[in-house]
Structure formats: C-alpha cells, structure tokens
C-alpha cells in the first residue's frame, strides 16, 4: 500500500545478484554507495549467524537515479552482485543447460518449499527456495537506507533493539533522551543488538545452546521512530491508516509472525482509564504532549507526534541441522533434508530489516502528506505546515 | 587476506592445508591456510593471534584438542560431548571452539546412507577418534553402541564420559579378550590406528568377522582403502573411508568460517568445490606422502 513511493526487488539467492528499483523520492537527496553499504553491514551482524566474512559483505551498486551524489527524482536502481555467482552459474543458468541439474525434491517444513512447488507446478523446489530465501532482505535494507537518508534529512530517526531471544528477555526501558540513532550506535556493538548486558549474555547463551544441538531460536525486537509530525496516514480509509501500512510492511519480512504497536498485547491487562495517553499542555502554547505513549505514536491510523513504537516476533528459523520429517515430492518416499550447519538465530538481522521497512513506509506517508519534487520543496512544505 | 592454520605438535604431515587451499582457490576466497607446528607453550600466543585478527580461524589436532579449551571464551555445545575442540571460530573477538570431527562423522555416515537411528554399532578404539564416533552416534540416535579397547582405563573413562548423555541408547564397553562376535552390529567402526601406513597389512577385523549388509567405517585414511575396507568391500558391505570423514570435517570447519558459502539453504555443497576433484587432490597428496616420513595421526580426524 505504497501511495507515493514505488519499489520492487528482484533476484534469486544464488542468481547473478539482487536488483532493486525505488521510484518517487524527490530530487536533491544526497546519497552515496558507502552510506548504503554501512546499513547493509548492520544487517550482516548478529550472533548465531557466524562471523561476517569478506566474501559475504554486500555492496550495492547504484545503477541509476543518482548523479554527482544527489538524486535526480528518476527511478533509483540498485544492484547487489552475488559474489559467488561464478560457482552457481550452471545450477542457476538463465539459459537452458545441457547437463541436468539435480533437482531439490525434499520440501523443508517451515519454508515455502511445498506450497510453492504445488502452487507453480514445479518439480524442482529450487525454483521456490531461491527466491523465498531471506537473502532478498538485503535489497530491502539497501532501498530502505535511501528512505532512511531522506527521513534523516528531515530529522526523523529510526532505530531498533532486540528485546527477547528464546527465553532470554531484556526488560530494560529505553533510557530517557536516547535517540533512535543513539540506540543503534549502542546496540550495533552488541552481538545480539540488545541494551542490557545481562540479557545479552543470556541471549547469546540461548543461541549457542540451540546452535550446538542443531536447533534454532526466534525472538522479539522493537523499532522506534522519532521526529514524526502529526498526521502521517489517515483515519479516513482502512488502507490509509499508518498502522495498517506498517503492519503490512513488517509482517512481510521472512519469519515474522506478529506485530504490536505501543503497549500492544500486554495492554489487555489494563483498563482503558490507565491505557490511554492523557493530553498535557506544554509551556509552548502551540504544543501539546502526552503523559505516556501506550498508543505507540499512532491513534486512529494517524501519527500523533509521539515516537512510533512497534514490536514484532520472529519465529525460529527452520533448521536443517535437526531435521523434521518430510516427503520427497518426486519419489513419494519419506526423508529428512539435512545440513550440517545453519544459522541459529536471525533476530538481530531481522530488526535491521524491519527498520528499513519502517523507513520506506514513513517516507511514503511523509511524501503523501507534504509532497514536493525536490528536497528543498519537501523541507519548505514541512516547515510551513508540519505540527509536532 | 584471511589467514587460517592447523595447529598440532608434532604436526607431521598434514592434509588440511591441501583441503582448505583447494577450496579457497575454487571459490576465489582471499584466504590462506598453513600448518603451524605449535608446542603446548605457544597455545596462548595462538589465542592472542586469533583475537587480534592475525589468524581468522584455526583447526586443532593432537595433542591440543582438549588443552586449547582453556583459551576459549566458549565451547560450543557440539564440542561438549567429546570434551575436545578441533575448530576455532572468532566471533567479535570471542573465541568459540567447535568439534567438526563429530559433524564430519555424522555427515560421512549420512552420505553412505547409513540409517543410524536405532542402529547397533561396534566401535573399536576408545581414544579420541572413538569418542568422536560415540558422540556422533549418540546424536544420531543409535540404539546400541559397544566400544572395545584393550586399555581398561580408556574404556572406563569413555563410558563415564558418555553415560549421562546416552539417554535411550545402551552404551557398553568391552575389553578385547577373545574373538569378537561382530554379527549383531549394523555398523563396524575402526577408531584405532590399526591398518595405517606403513603397516597396511594389518586389520582390526578378520574377513569372517565382516558380514554383508553391514556398514564398515575406517577412520584411517592413509591408505585410503585400508585392508579392513577392502575386506568389507569384498563382503558386499557399504564402506565409509577416513578420507570421507576428513573431507566432511574440513568442510564443516569451512562452513563455520564462511557461513552460507560452503553449503546452500538446503545443504547442497557449493558446486564450485567439486567433491570429486577435491577427493582426487587429497588422494594424490596421500599417495605422494606414501614415501614420506611421519606416521602421525593419519585418521579422518583433523590433521
């Protein structure tokens, strides 16, 4: 439900590379490949994914839409080449190949293998898994980083932290006055992207324990966005509501099973009288504030000038080191797909992907409200009409 | 450039550099791998090099597989059962020790399509190799494991080590006194150096002790086809060589260092590696060495 921005990703996990196109941003946005790379690197960190290695470090090449470091208003195209393409070019060849490629015929529980093969009538599950792989989220982070730069130039920041991995929880509140970027600066130094050092240890242990026995664990993360004026999204139609747009974006991330806004599910323990955020006068007669932010910055589908706070839960990545039962779609024989080592936890990376999705949604909603063909115009429009 | 190494003392002839260098080359990874003869007093220095990034990761062979643990920040649960590590990963300056011998054994058995779950296995040798085999078989859910060794303390210590983890697997130890009745076992494993070059005319089992339909696994890889495996082949058995295991443990180490690069989402080996070519390189290296000097540890364990 993008209203002003349009964007698509393309690419298979072991294909030539990932492609992304983003259209609808104003001209005059300064952006560099280095900035995009710095965001991609954040996605590649995280305990339980193995250490980041040079071969893996992604770099997006800007193909169009930017000239002399500044956006043109035309579609921005990015390419992240697959550095390992040479080794997979037979298996993933675009043209027909002479040697038959061994098909993947054992669908993995928890993945799209079986449903995708049945849906498209594939006999080789590779045709599904190559695109269903979370590899694709690298391009979302790359495109999201452009939206992040756009928001940053308008003093809107987006950050995240991990709140739980398996049974290890970080109950700490966000320190007062800590900006989302300040938060990121702190947690990006943590292997599990969490604030509390004690919880960090427990989370690392949970991942290690799972990985050691070939298992995997899920978790919960929080995304925070600040600097948002009143009125992104609208109460007037279901598909204009900001929370619906955020929900769609977050739940579209691989393995995300649920999302909450503000106080979320625990709010059910409260009566309405203590749930809702009272409206308080500030010294500045133009400004009103809130006693609390249980609504998570969104009321009736509109931003209310409070920080937007969302949390999402990621299920354990399906693991192949401790395989589940499956049935070969070619032979009909029961079997178990197996892999000696798989990632045990992708929650820290998913939090970064979620930030990127939030950036894209907020940039879209902001352009919808304020519009403008150049950064200068967007800034002028906001200066004239934005209320905080 | 990332630098990897195998450490041991005395190191003797090591196949690991050939394996890893082959993979680095095939996958165009900017990395090197060397054999570092490392006496015990230099282990701390190796740990320091890892933390400083001078070494990106190491394999560990005899006699340091247990001694290196004190230099680690974490022993991964895969290395806990055997109490030995053979692969160290650096994760944000933390040193994490793994045991890929165990994963290598599991992988090699799986490749041979051996149904380990509920099976009954005879493991000859209660040393480090035997321990890794027992750990792997327990993880695979074997029904019954019998370990034989003429050294009583070794058998006792192995049983004590694994009794708690055995769960529903029955684990039994035996001292070889008389002829072994191997008929009840679906898997026969040699985890002793018997049959290793240059004494290639030795075998831990006689032909009559090997029955068709059994799977026979020899940890010795020099020679690649030991007398035991040749006998097993003649009897119509499936065989697993020490080289199969050696390759599997090496690839498991590489997957720790280059996650997602060695295997894809469904566990397929990166086509760039070409297993047959890798095997040929290592077979040739073994042959080359047949006239060499050292006989130190030529089993499928990391060397």
Could you characterize what this model shows?
With 388 residues, chain A is α+β, with helices and mostly antiparallel strands. Chain A has one domain: Chorismate synthase AroC (Chorismate synthase, AroC fold). In chain A, the strands form 6 sheets. A 5-stranded antiparallel β-sheet of chain A has the order 8-7-9-15-10. Chain B is of the alpha/beta class and 303 residues long. Chain B has 2 domains: 145 residues, 3-Layer(aba) Sandwich (Rossmann fold), CATH 3.40.50; 140 residues, Rossmann fold (3-Layer(aba) Sandwich), CATH 3.40.50.720. Chain B has 8 helices and 12 strands. Chain B has a 6-stranded mixed β-sheet. In chain B, helix 5 links the parallel strand 8 and strand 9. The mean pLDDT of chain B is 90. Chains A and B meet through helix 2 and helix 7 of A and strand 5, helix 3 and helix 7 of B.
Give the count of structural domains of chain B.
Answer: 2
Described by the principal axes of the CA atoms, the overall outline of chain B is globular
Q: Which structural class matches the secondary elements of chain B?
A: alpha/beta
How many strands, what sense, and barrel or not for the largest sheet of chain A?
Answer: 5 strands, antiparallel
Order the strands across the largest sheet of chain A as they lie in space: 8-7-9-15-10
Name the poorly predicted regions of chain B: none
What does the radius of gyration of chain B come to? 18 Å
Strand % of chain A is: 15-25%
What value does the average pLDDT of chain B take?
A: 90
**Chain pair with largest interface:** A-B, 37 and 41 residues
Q: CATH homologous superfamily of the largest domain in chain B, by name? A: Leucine Dehydrogenase, chain A, domain 1
Determine the structural class of chain A based on helices, strands and strand pairing.
Answer: alpha+beta
Element-by-element helix/strand order of chain A: EEHEEEEHHHHEEHHEHEHEEEEEEEHH
Q: What portion of residues of chain B belong to β-strands?
A: 15-25%
Architecture of chain A in CATH?
4-Layer Sandwich
Let me know the average pLDDT of chain A.
93
Tell me the count of domains of chain A: 1
- Text of the CATH class of the largest domain in chain B: Alpha Beta
CATH topology call of the largest domain in chain B: Rossmann fold
